[in-house]
Amino acid sequence: MKKLSFSKVMLWFGLLFLYAPMFILVIYSFNESKLVTVWGGFSPKWYAELFKDEQILDAVWVSLRIAFYSATMAVIIGTMAAFVMTRFRRSWAKLTLSNMITAPLVMPEVITGLSLLLLFVQMADTFGWPAERGMLTVWIAHSTFCAAYVAVVVSSRLRELDQSIEEAAMDLGATPLKTFFLITVPMISPALIAGWLLSFSLSLDDLVIASFASGPGSTTLPMVVFSSVRLGVSPKINALATIIILAVSLVAFLSWYFTRRAERKMKQAME
């Protein structure tokens, strides 16, 4: 019988520490009792109650739309910033841009949310836009801080690329724009997908910044969950969390599968 090494023990301990609460949450989502800490028997009734709660369903739809638009915009902005950070020659402007891009990574969310709130209020007083805070302001706020994460992920991928392939394409007559979309983008597509998924998760999970940037009619799911938890945890929240865990796990598995298959095809083509 093989002895367990210290590293394996710590690995299993870490996995247990991370995922045991999720398994407990999934089990208690089928609890018959209204008290989430008291097991009253197996029942899926809270899932039926969840789909009858219009407030939660509306918040889910709002959060999904904001997360999708924010992740898409963050990938566009973050990719452009990453390209400037890695391909332009060193200068004070490039250094300033790099520092500004990475600032949201270390900035407390309370400071970021308050700054954006003051910005929106000042813009409304000066230009009359935005007239009120809602989905648009939340989308702008989420795109702002998610773009920083995308820039870091994509820039690390760009630094690993062999620029001779891009130079060869331009030597054969391709324009820089055509080279970027036909050569560079396919090679960094795994980083783009990872950045999009990371941004989607961050936007869907955000509470602090959304609380500052949102208004009437744009309540996100974390805000609804947080407000309901303050009054007492409902078993419907456990059911909702279980559905989110299953959905995220499925998306993560499919993304890993298609990315792995694309990398294998690229390696076979290069060989």
Automatic annotation (TrEMBL):
<protein>
    <submittedName>
        <fullName>ABC transporter permease subunit</fullName>
    </submittedName>
</protein>
<feature type="transmembrane region" description="Helical">
    <location>
        <begin position="136"/>
        <end position="158"/>
    </location>
</feature>
<feature type="transmembrane region" description="Helical">
    <location>
        <begin position="179"/>
        <end position="198"/>
    </location>
</feature>
<keyword id="KW-1003">Cell membrane</keyword>
<dbReference type="GO" id="GO:0005886">
    <property type="term" value="C:plasma membrane"/>
</dbReference>
<comment type="similarity">
    <text>Belongs to the binding-protein-dependent transport system permease family. CysTW subfamily.</text>
</comment>
<feature type="transmembrane region" description="Helical">
    <location>
        <begin position="66"/>
        <end position="84"/>
    </location>
</feature>
<keyword id="KW-0813">Transport</keyword>
<dbReference type="GO" id="GO:0055085">
    <property type="term" value="P:transmembrane transport"/>
</dbReference>
<feature type="transmembrane region" description="Helical">
    <location>
        <begin position="105"/>
        <end position="124"/>
    </location>
</feature>
<keyword id="KW-0472">Membrane</keyword>
<feature type="transmembrane region" description="Helical">
    <location>
        <begin position="9"/>
        <end position="30"/>
    </location>
</feature>
<keyword id="KW-0812">Transmembrane</keyword>
<feature type="domain" description="ABC transmembrane type-1">
    <location>
        <begin position="60"/>
        <end position="255"/>
    </location>
</feature>
<dbReference type="InterPro" id="IPR051789">
    <property type="entry name" value="Bact_Polyamine_Transport"/>
</dbReference>
<feature type="transmembrane region" description="Helical">
    <location>
        <begin position="237"/>
        <end position="258"/>
    </location>
</feature>
<dbReference type="Pfam" id="PF00528">
    <property type="entry name" value="BPD_transp_1"/>
</dbReference>
<keyword id="KW-1133">Transmembrane helix</keyword>
<dbReference type="InterPro" id="IPR035906">
    <property type="entry name" value="MetI-like_sf"/>
</dbReference>
<dbReference type="InterPro" id="IPR000515">
    <property type="entry name" value="MetI-like"/>
</dbReference>
